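User: structure tokens for this one?
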Amino acid sequence: MKRINIFFFYLYIVLVSLASSCNPEEQPESTMPSNLNSNIETVDMTVNISATADNANFFTFTFYEGTDSTYIEANDGTASYTYVDPGVYQVMTRAHSSYYDYIQKLETVEIIDNSFGGGIPNTGYQTPLSYPGMELVWQDEFDGNSLSSDWTHETGNDPGGLPGWGNNELQYYQADNTEVSDGLLKITAKEYSVNGFNYTSSRIKTQGIQSFKYGRIDIRAALPYGKGIWPALWMLGENIPSVSWPACGEIDIMEMIGGDGYNDRTIYGTLHWLDNGNHASAGDSNSLQSGLFAEEFHVFSIIWNSSSIKFLCDDIQYYEVNITGAELSEFQEQFFFIFNIAVGGSWPGNPDDTTVFPQTMAVDYVRVFQ
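Assistant:
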């Protein structure tokens, strides 16, 4: 009798459970998200999207690309996706309270390839032909079809027993890589073998012809780009034949070591001198917020007097050196100009598979005000 009661008791429990599962109590409905908003920005080939919604526990994003799609889930409502090719694409944004309860919106984005394709630009920063209280004492606007008599070429790779110009540079300098046309000086580095060197370029100077002490100097130029490319607009002390370097002093108005994106948008302004028998230097860098120095013309300047040398890019000062100390007496003397593109070297490293040749530095003008 007891066994029968126990049997019926368990049977009762099973039947109650089955009845409960067949007739569940009504569950509360999930609160649906509302007010879905999204903001889409494109940077180069990348889409950055941020979304907000009321009552959303998480978000999902689907980036469609042809027959393929990429799904991203994010609690903070943000996601990024980089497309391979330019085009018009769709992006689905969903705000979820659960995986099955969501609201959505489908948007279209256009991806444009803004990567720099090379060539000399026709836009950029300009500086005036006059400044209050100063006189334009020398200029070269590079009109005509040849260099003026103010410039001479330096050639080769081993000046005075300094292979690689003392920097392990790879280029052979020759006059053939200089051109004056369209109102521009064009110095071009090429992957071309001459005298056992795999690269050629040009280096020009005003030594013994035009030299200056103090003043404002403006040089408007569009720069080359790429790993191992080293353009420079600079000055050396006119007395270098008698005192040698670095006792003659060096003013690097602009140097750039190309490659890796950041380097192609960063320039350096530097001084070099002799301090108690040792090489000394001081300088700083200046970077564009976006783009490359190759994409537009920029003006590289110094303002130089007996007290200091200030370095500017597009009229914005980014560095200043006090030159009143006795160890900096080099900078109270005459200096001449050198414009060149080096290829490779200890500082920039050598070109690699990403480096595109030829590479041209285009100089619109150089002006000296005193």
